[in-house]
Amino acid sequence: MSGRPDAASRIDAAQLADLAGAHLDLARAPFTLPRSRVLVFRVDRESAADALGEGGAPAPATALRVHTSEYERGLDECRVLDELVVRDASGAPLPVTRVLPQAIEFGGGAATLAFAGTAALTIGRPADAGGEPDAGPLLVEWLRPDGVRERGELAGPTAAVRLVIEPGRGVRAEASAAHAAECAASEASWLDWFAKCPVVRPELQPMAAFCWWVLGANVVELPGLGAVRGVVPSKIGYVGVWQWDAYFIALGLRHGDPALAREQLEIAFRFPSADGQLPDVVHEEGVLATSDDLPQADRDRLRRAGSDIADPDAPVPLTKPPLAAWALAKVLEAEDRPEWAREQLAVIRRSQDWWFAGSDLDGDGLPEYGHPYSSGLDDSPIFDGPLPTTAPDLGAYLVLQDLELARLAERYGADAAGDPRAHRDRAAATMGRLLELWDPESGRFTARAAGERVASDAIVGFMPLLTGELPAPVLAALEAALADPARYATPWAVPTVSAADPDFSPERMWRGPVWVNTNRLIVEGLQRSGRPELARELAERTAALVVHGGGPHEYFNPETGRKARTATTAFGWSAALFLDLAVELSAPAS
Predict the structure, then answer these.
(1) Handedness of CA 223, 224, 228, 230 (dihedral sign)
(2) How far apart are CA 139 and CA 152, in angstroms?
(3) Fewer CB within 10 Å, N- or C-terminus of the chain?
(4) How remote is the C-alpha of 405 from its chain's centroid?
(5) Which parts of 195-276 fold into alpha helices (H)?
(6) How many CB atoms neighbour CB 484 within 10 A?
(7) Largest Cα–Cα distance of the chain, in whole Å?
(8) Topology at the third CATH level for domain 198-586
(9) 8 pLDDT higher than 70
């Protein structure tokens, strides 16, 4: 089902912007603009986002800080202004009293901050400025990272200060009389975006509006790729197009902007290697396709963890799970593009072949992960042992991808997608090897590290549901595991490691927290396995988790349903998949 609004609902773009603005606290959600690399946060004297209480609102900010958003650089490395303050004529700072996607309001409307294009901020009096009419001029004061403090004056009703962020994070201040026009342009940009927002059930609409804002806020341009719009996982630390992030993000975008959804897949498919492998990441400085491309910070983290793959003897390919055909099929449901589909299928077919030719590292017919990063579940306990890792999720994805390629080949032609029968034969053979990972004694699928069984009870064991071909006893055991409060039926299910596992941690990335993408895949798996009621129940619980948690965070504590302490906020695939679930849950009963 498409979630694109009809003509009558398009007038609600301003209302949707207001709904999204209720979440823009300038701590967990910064002020930004589609395509811009500039981020504006509040300055909290004690702490930042993690200091916010359980749903509590922070005190009004009086100072802001400005950063740029750059690949593999943290916010502290990308400081532009340490403080930005608007003061009244007496020198007292005006508090931030309202935040909308298009503007930050100070002092009840005495002044506003907006974008002037994608690389500049404008601060001035709005045309209908409130406050005391004879209060005198306002002052704009900013502090550079080098300790230099500067100021400008808003002496008249049209006077404004424009702060241009230059390459290298320098700032050039200009006097301006174009504040009203620049504010209007920023507002128009956001209203155009919100006019595409999916329309969902009323109780889900406020969070859907915020999630649609997240996707728009995370749009960046990638230098060197032309006029390409990448929707990154987060402008806070994840400035690139990760392969499977692109797939999940495309699922949400398809409901309002199918063209932008297709653009994400095009970026992910744009740089295959000579043998068909797709890169892990496409970013502004190139691609990340082998361990030789890893940023230094990643290498350092691996060394600290004692990983044997921090410094491999030979480059290890880095990619992401093979969900390309699944994502392509979903995007084509929103808008069929046969010629475009054939172009993408040719790339996906070669990528699928690469898994069997280039990543079946022990030659047994079932490809393995040669590096944890290729799984996307970087620190899962299934990777605590030696590599390579034979994992049930990878086997399931490969079966699903061959089945999707067969179906798409019948629809769009075998020239691009390959012989449907060959894909189905390979899927059947892979399914047979996948079922060898089933352990009847423990009642779960298990991974193997360099051929040895891994004891960890992890969420990868549910991904074989995606094949839709599990024997009845296996399916029943997985259903029981999902319903077991000692294992996976935590208060905010589904944790990425069983709560009964010794490695379970409710806060540590893939070792216990709930991720929206793995929940979404289990929902899909239950649907494909003939369990629509269970699928809908988990879809409802996942949507409720995002609402309860206050937004589409990177991952959630399964016991509290709140943002895990180290999780990134305003996270792309969490936003996109909430939208995807909300649209599905809002569809009329068939």
Answers:
(1) negative
(2) 6
(3) C
(4) 26
(5) 205-217, 243-253, 258-269
(6) 14
(7) 81
(8) Glycosyltransferase (1.50.10)
(9) no
Whether 488 and 494 have beta carbons less than 8 Å apart is answered as yes
Judged by DSSP in three states, 238 sits in: strand
The single-letter DSSP state of residue 283 is: E
Burial-class residue 146 by CB neighbours within 10 Å (0-12, 13-18, 19+): exposed
- Asked if 337 and 266 touch (Cβ cutoff 8 Å), the reply is no
CA 96 to CA 129: how far, in whole Å?
14
DSSP string, 121-167: EEEE--TT--S-TTS--EEEEEE-TTS-EEEEEE-STT-EEEEEE-T
Amino acid in position 509? M
| Token code pair at residue 502 | 């010794």
Amino acid at 523: V
Tens digits of per-residue pLDDT, 542-581? 999 999 999 999 999 999 999 999 999 999 999 999 999 9
Contact predicate 382/456, CB 8 Å: yes
Query: What order of strands is seen across the sheet that includes strand 281-283?
Result: 241-242, 281-283, 286-288
**pTM score of the predicted model:** 0.94
Quote the distance between the C-alpha of residue 553 and its chain's center. Answer: 9
Q: Which residues contact 11 (CB under 8 A, 6 or more apart)?
A: none
Where in the chain are the domains? Answer: 7-192, 198-586
Query: Across the beta sheet with 111-115, what order do the strands follow?
Result: 96-100, 103-106, 111-115, 120-124, 160-165, 171-176
SS3 of 18, please?
helix
Q: What is the DSSP letter of 571?
A: -
